[in-house]
Every structure is written in structure tokens, then in C-alpha cells.
Design brief:
single chain; 279 residues; alpha/beta; two-stranded antiparallel sheet; globular
């Protein structure tokens, strides 16, 4: 199997950034880096010194605009700080200059506002936090979609708020690396976008070795099946042994108050967890 690429992913930080908008994707990208030993994920701010996030978390960025490495991917998170930073000429100029040389330009939540100001969303289809959709539409020259977890238009990928950024990050990992990763991550992120009903749903789990635990995917998802077949045919290096359970079980909590059970195959990283309630 082909070696994974060396990719540098940069996450922009600024005061009053929403913590989960960048920490979720950071977890996905960081777990991949730890598991493979390839590439790097860095945080970047305009100036040196701690960044105070919207809920009080303080973060020390790895780089400033002046010394940041060349990026393959730039990720712009959202938060209340975007309303202020949209008028920050230095920050908008940095996004514009760096994004022009990136393979992928991405945002989470209201980070799309900053991308719009930098010119990346002009004439494109995007999405953002549901409470900010009309505000972004009002800025003009952009088609803002209401409903998708994330939207790709060329090399621009924008996601809705918080957990949607994790879905986007999973999908992006697949695009950046081997086609097998693309198939598996696409299946995982697309299945996480399903709306589970109280009646039944059929989850299973795929574990990418140390890649942040199990990524759940539907056993009835044809793309997941195709990915599983490709894994079986091509094999994986030792640190990426992958196993899956295709037992059709219902989700934990799908039926409130029902007795719950957990099934785990001994010696396997994959597991299915379901409830014992009736369909």
C-alpha cells in the first residue's frame, strides 16, 4: 500500500474562537499524525502569546503569521470572535495569501464569514452555523446551503457548527491520503450525518488502530462495504489493523428506558453497542 503523504495542516486561532470548532478537527488530524508518524498539525495566530477562547480556554499557538510553515490545508474555525476579526485586515490578508497556495481551504461554523471576507466563498456554495445562514447570505455573492453538515465546492470545504467540523475532518483525511482511507472516512462521516430514529438504527464500528478510538459506520452503507472489501484485499500495516462488526443492532439510547447490552469481540478493536428494545 502507498505511504501516507506528509501533510501540514494549519488551524487559525484568534480571541473568542469557539473551542470545539477547532479542537474537534484537531483531534482527528492529531490522532492520524500520532498513528502514522507522518505530517504535522499546527495552530497559528496573528501574534505570539495565549489566545483566550470564547468559553475561557487559553491556548498557546505554535506559530504566528510571521513564522508559520507552508500549509497544505488551512482551517478557519468560528466563534463570536469572527464578528470582530472580519474587520482585522492583517488576519484577512493572511487567510487570503496562505489559502491561495493551499490544497484545501476549510472552515467550521462562522469561520465561513472570514473566508468570505478573504474572497474564497465568492460565487461558491457553502454552509455555516444554522443561526448565521441569513447573515452570510446577506453579504452577497455566495450560495449558503441550509441543511448539509459540510459542503465542498472545488478545494473549498465549509462545515456547519461544532460536530460537523469533525465530520468534515474525517472526510478530509480520506481526500488527502490513500483511496482506501477516502472510502472508509467517507462512509464514517456520511453515516454520522444520518438522523437516527427512535425505532431503529443499525450501527457498527471501524477502528483505525490508534486513530481516536472507533469511528462508527452503518452496516447497510454500501460505501462502507466497499471500503471493507478494499481493506481485505489490500491489507494494512501493523499499526492500522482494522476489524469491523457487521451485526445489525440498535443504537444505545435509541429506545429510552430499554435494557441495554454491549457486545465486544475479544481481541478486536471494533465493537457494536446496542439496546435490547423491540424494533
Amino acid at each position: 500500500m502507498e505511504e501516507l503523504r506528509e501533510v501540514t495542516i494549519g488551524i487559525l486561532l484568534f480571541d473568542d474562537v469557539e473551542e470545539l470548532d477547532f479542537v474537534g478537527p484537531f483531534e482527528v488530524f492529531g490522532a492520524l499524525r500520532k498513528a502514522t508518524g507522518r505530517g504535522q498539525v499546527v495552530t497559528i495566530a496573528e501574534k505570539a502569546g495565549p489566545i483566550r477562547c470564547f468559553n475561557g480556554l487559553r491556548v498557546l499557538p505554535d506559530h504566528t503569521f510571521a513564522d508559520a510553515p507552508k500549509l497544505d490545508v488551512v482551517l478557519v474555525p468560528g466563534g463570536q470572535g469572527t464578528r470582530r476579526e472580519v474587520s482585522n485586515e492583517a488576519l484577512i490578508r493572511w487567510i487570503r495569501n496562505v489559502g491561495a497556495d493551499c490544497e484545501w481551504v476549510t472552515s467550521v461554523c462562522t469561520g465561513a464569514l472570514l473566508l468570505h471576507e478573504a474572497g474564497f466563498t465568492r460565487g461558491k456554495r457553502v454552509t455555516t452555523f444554522f443561526g448565521f445562514i441569513e447573515d452570510l447570505r446577506a453579504r452577497g455573492d455566495v450560495t449558503v446551503l441550509d441543511g448539509p453538515r459540510f459542503v465542498r465546492d472545488g478545494n473549498l470545504v465549509t462545515s456547519a457548527g461544532v460536530s460537523a467540523g469533525i465530520d468534515m475532518a474525517l472526510w478530509l483525511v480520506g481526500q488527502l491520503h490513500h483511496p482506501m482511507w477516502r472510502a472508509v472516512c467517507s462512509a464514517a462521516s456520511s453515516t454520522s450525518r444520518r438522523r437516527h430514529t427512535p425505532q431503529r438504527c443499525r450501527p457498527s464500528a471501524v477502528s483505525f488502530g490508534d486513530l481516536g478510538g472507533s469511528i462508527r459506520a452503518g452496516s447497510d452503507n454500501p460505501r462502507f462495504g466497499a471500503a471493507r472489501d478494499e481493506i481485505s484485499a489490500s491489507g494494512l500495516p501493523g499499526s492500522f489493523r482494522t476489524s469491523c462488526c457487521l451485526r445489525k443492532v440498535r443504537c444505545v439510547g435509541a429506545v429510552p428506558g430499554s435494557a441495554r447490552r454491549a457486545w465486544r469481540r475479544k481481541g478486536s478493536a471494533a465493537s457494536c453497542i446496542g439496546c435490547a428494545g423491540k424494533s
